[in-house]
Design brief:
The protein is an all-alpha fold. The chain has one domain (31-132). It is 68% helix and 0% strand. It is built from four helices and no strands. It has helices at 2-11, 35-72, 88-107, 111-132. Helix 2 (35-72) packs antiparallel against helix 3 and helix 3 (88-107) crosses helix 4. The chain is flat, with a radius of gyration of 19 Å. The relative contact order is 0.18. Keywords: Membrane, Transmembrane, Transmembrane helix. The chain crosses the membrane at residues 64-82. This is Metal ABC transporter ATP-binding protein.
C-alpha cells in the first residue's frame, strides 16, 4: 500500500521541460503558408514554448521541493504534489508544431530554415566544446 502511494505521488510530479519531446504534428497544415507566414508562426510558437517551459520548470521545481520536504520532514506535504499545473501535453504539442513549421520551412526552402540549421550547428559545437573541457 505504501509503495502504491509513493508511486502515485512520484507520478504526479511535473516533468522538467527539457525532458518533454514534441508530439507529431503534420507539416501539411502549413503547406499554404508562405515563408513570411511560417517565420511569424515560428516566432509566435517559440514565444509560447518559452512561456510554457518557464511555467513547467517552476512546477517541476516546486514539486521537487515538496517531494524533498515530504520525504524528509513532513509527509503530508506530499499531497501538494497531487495538484496540477503540469503543462506537459501543451508543451509537447507546441514543440510538435514548431517541428512541423521547421519541416515546412525546409520544404519551401525558406531563409528561416538556414537560420535554424546554423543555430543547431552552433549549439552542437558549443555542446561539443563543453564535453571536451
Amino acid at each position: 500500500m505504501t509503495a502504491m502511494a509513493a508511486a502515485s505521488i512520484v507520478a504526479a510530479c511535473a516533468t522538467s521541460p527539457d525532458k518533454i519531446s514534441g508530439t507529431y504534428v503534420s507539416p501539411i497544415q502549413y503547406s499554404n503558408y508562405d515563408c513570411d507566414q511560417i517565420r511569424m508562426e515560428m516566432v509566435r510558437i517559440s514565444n509560447k514554448v518559452a512561456e510554457v517551459s518557464g511555467q513547467q520548470k517552476r512546477q517541476a521545481s516546486n514539486d521537487a521541493v515538496a517531494m524533498g520536504v515530504g520525504l524528509v520532514l513532513f509527509w503530508p506535504a506530499l499531497f501538494f504534489l497531487a495538484g496540477g499545473n503540469d503543462r506537459k501535453e501543451e508543451l509537447a504539442n507546441l514543440k510538435g508544431q514548431y517541428d512541423a513549421l521547421t519541416s515546412a520551412a525546409i520544404e519551401k526552402k525558406c531563409p528561416v530554415a538556414q537560420e535554424i540549421e546554423a543555430a543547431r550547428q552552433a549549439h552542437a559545437e558549443a555542446e561539443s566544446k563543453k564535453k571536451r573541457r
